[in-house]
Amino acid sequence: MPDVLRLAAFTDDPSGGNPAGVVLDAHGMSDAEMLALAARLDYSESAFLFPRADEPRSYDVRYFSPLAEVPFCGHATIASAVAVARRNGPGGLVLYTQAGQVAVRTRVVDATLVATLTSVPARLEPTAEADVDRALALLGWAREDLDPGLPPRIAYAGARHLVLAAGSRGRLADLDYDVDGLKDFMLAHDLTTVALVWREAPMLFHARNPFPVGGVFEDPATGAAAAALGAYLRDLGLVEPPVDLEIRQGDDMGRPSRLGVHIPAGRPEIQVTGAAVEIP
Fold first, then answer.
1. Which pTM value belongs to this model?
2. pLDDT tens for residues 58-102?
3. Which of 25, 107, 170, 210 is the one with CA 20 to 30 A from 180?
4. SS (H, E, C) the chain
């Protein structure tokens, strides 16, 4: 049985944030064994690290939800980097994911380990109006519920997310969707989550992320979607890089999470920062 660590990411409180399982050395584990362990942990994702013998502080990483493997997961990346830092000390890491190479830096801030990941090149894609209407129907939303200043798009920063912006905090707070229908829609369009956001202020967003394709109703903190939102705002010209955003997620689930997003100038990657703490 591998040594399994449990950490909550994007929080300094074990009762908040998004829990992730982390296996720091998964050599010898099969795909079936990794999936079975992720299902047993029942977190939205777990990370399995394979240390590279010829590259210090470099790892191949695979991510599994309770139902399937995913190409990239932000909160499990933050949790993994903090777990490595707890064992080997803070500093830089290089993670080789199915989405590409991800650099992560860990440091201590106010006695808490904090990690910053640099995403793969992030981009925006158009989405068909018929697909938007279908997604809204499955969510129980109407076009009038959307913020006209934040149009629907598909954003990518290691995984694909449909970004839908609510026009009010109340609309975002009321989440009750067709689980099977949305899952089928997301699988058909290669979506990892639907990123539901509400803009409280120019640089402050609230988010919720349905994740039925992973066997989870909702993700309490979604680092990959946070990076994708950074690309969304940048590519639509809604922010002027370099700029920092705060995303608040998990409040409606009772697991408050805080994600910092840095959108640099002149670079396609997005940086996402958060703390992580061990779950007793």
1. 0.97
2. 999 999 999 999 999 999 999 999 999 999 999 999 999 999 999
3. 170
4. CCCEEEEEECCCCCCCCEEEEEECCCCCCCHHHHHHHHHHHCCCEEEEEEECCCCCCEEEEEEECCCCEECCCHHHHHHHHHHHHHHHCCCEEEEEECCEEEEEEEEEECCEEEEEEECCCCEEECCCHHHHHHHHHHHCCCHHHECCCCCCEEEECCCEEEEEEECCHHHHHCCCCCHHHHHHHHHHCCCCEEEEEEEEECCEEEEEEEEHHHCEEEECCCHHHHHHHHHHHHHCCCCCCCEEEEEEECHHHCCCEEEEEEECCCCCCCEEEEEEEECC
